[in-house]
Amino acid sequence: MRTIKLSSHMMAAITMTLSFASLGGTDRTESAEDKFSYPNNARYAISLSFDDARNSQVDVGIPILDKYDVKGTFYVNPKFVDERLDGWKKAAKNGHELGNHTSSHLCTGNFAWLRKDNLGLEQVDLAWLRRDIEMTTTYMREKLDVEPRSFAYPCGNTFVGRGKEVKSYVPLIAELFKTGRTWLDETGNNPTYTDFAQLAGNRMDGMSFAEIKDMLDMLKENNKWIILAGHEVGEKGMYTTDKRALEALIIYLKDPKNGYWLATVDEIATYIEKHR
Ligand SMILES: [Zn+2]
Question: What residues have CB less than 8 Å from 30, skipping those under 6 apart?
Fold first, then answer.
């Protein structure tokens, strides 16, 4: 008879397999995510965010939010803020959150029309990007009296450089801000797990209320924090959040029976940080 000797490596593999198997069984204990709860026993959290400081956010979007006393998070570029400076000052004073969205709005140079001086993210370094981001923070302090705590990555891109020289700029955002939000993600944020420097963001542009609700139903499992992101506000379009969908969504999210806590990115991040 042969005895089978198991190496410590094999033993570890078997132990891991057994513990994964027990996670999948019906006796699976509730995970920390499943137990996480938000203020007023809400089961899910949600933030409404808008990028670029487009004029229609001041003209159409903020009046809808204000009508229902809802606070949004707006990631701004100085050149757009300048076009509605008084409107943005008023929004900040009324409790809407203003975050940083860089000065150049530099994305991958594959968006030829978004290149600056013919440069894309593939051609700049971290020092270039830091200056660009700090220019917006300085502008926000001086013109809006706001110290931004949140950041959104233009186009959701988080890198500089090419190939072997690529560097992530996520650590820079972690150094300068409390949170950074990406774009076009396929999940929400697990409150006990998510990285504040790369918060997932989900599209709300171009969708009807029914489509947004279907998406929320899919994303909300495990007490997720969902951050919706839009650009223009008005008539539904590729980069426009439909104003009727937005209003219907706010009414739905404010109804306590639907289980959502609706607040700004910074407010929810602060709460999660304290309670996880
Ligand atoms: Zn943008």
Answer: none
Which residues are found with C-beta within 5 Å of the ion, ligand 1? 51-52, 154
**Domain segments of the chain as ranges:** 46-275
- Ligand 1 centroid–CA 14 distance in Å is 48
- Whole-number Å distance between alpha carbons of 144 and 94: 12
Rounded to whole angstroms, how far apart are CA atoms 148 and 268? 15
SS3 203: strand
| CA 136 – ligand 1 centroid, Å | 13
Cα 271 to middle of ligand 1, angstroms: 26
Query: What does the mean pLDDT of the chain come to?
Result: 90
Q: Identify residue 160 by its one-letter amino acid code.
A: V
pLDDT in tens, 173-229: 999 999 999 999 999 999 999 999 999 999 999 999 999 999 999 999 999 999 999
Give me the pLDDT at residue 202, please: 98
Whether residue 192 contacts residue 146, with contact meaning beta carbons closer than 8 Å, is answered with no
Please state which CATH number belongs to domain 46-275. Answer: 3.20.20.370
Q: How far is the CA of 9 from the centre of ligand 1 (A)?
A: 48
> Quick count: other Cβ atoms within 10 Å of Cβ 183?
18
Cα of 3 from ligand 1 centre, angstroms: 64
Rounded CA separation 233/175 (Å): 32
Cα 259 to chain centroid distance, Å, stands at: 20
pLDDT digits 0-9 by tens, 99-143: 999 999 999 999 888 888 889 999 999 999 999 999 999 999 999
CA of 51 to the centre of ligand 1 (A): 5
In the reported structure, the alpha carbon of residue 234 is separated from the centroid of ligand 1 by a whole-number distance in angstroms of 17
221-242 residue pLDDT tens: 999 999 999 999 999 999 999 9
